Amino acid sequence: MNTSSRRKTGVVAVALAITAGLAIATPVAASASTTATGAVRSATGETGWLRLGHFSPDTKAVDVRVTALSGGSVVLDLADVAYGDISPYQALGEGKYTITMIPADSDDWSKVAISDTVTISPAKATTVAAYGPTATLQLRAFPDDLTSPSAGNARIRVIQASTLTPAVDVQTSTGLAIAKNARPGSATAYTEVPAGVWNLKLSGAAVSGAADVTVAAGSVNTLFVLDNASGGLTILPILDSAATPVTPVGGVQTGGGWLSTHAPTTTGSLGTVGRHAV
Fold this sequence. Notes:
By secondary structure, the protein is mostly beta strands. 0% of the residues lie in helices and 44% in strands.
């Protein structure tokens, strides 16, 4: 993905967040699993962290621009962000920013598909997700709680971004609830669970799915409920924060899944988004 630095006056809108309940369950063994990848470790001083994800299944790829409301400078550009993509975390100064999306490769920022504002707070991380059908596309900001779990445990939450059903239940193969009646655009609270492989079953109105997810000890993870190519439900696990012996310079282990095996292409920019098949 190409990145650049440009200037543009932002468009003001309102960012929202919503939460739902989460229950503790116990992981069970599995022969194959998906491991949550990519992380931010911490943020300090006047700096906060922002990442962006595209979770609207019938919305084509978009270009994304993040603009500071104070001064109107463009601080981030993302190109060709497609369904299931999530960017690395990017360090941003405290303040308000406009997030604008246009159809990929149009290069006409007057033809806005959607825009919204987000507030970046010192030492806090935020995920902004585009979700819902194209006709009712929404942006929502979710605060990311990167508090470390106790020894041997992980912390998880569920963000519901499926368009196939008005509500989703997520439970283990033994029937223990992870999320219940989760509405589109909602996030559960984080909870601690034993590290290991989780066999998860997803169910909604006339639609279902299953996913095996691995969560590592010391990690903080978000499990996105998405539509898959076969018309069912799936989970995209993304690592929010991971235990490391030494916190990297700048206090961050940035990334979507792509950064677990690749380095960013441009220092100081958002770089390439993590691309995931769904």
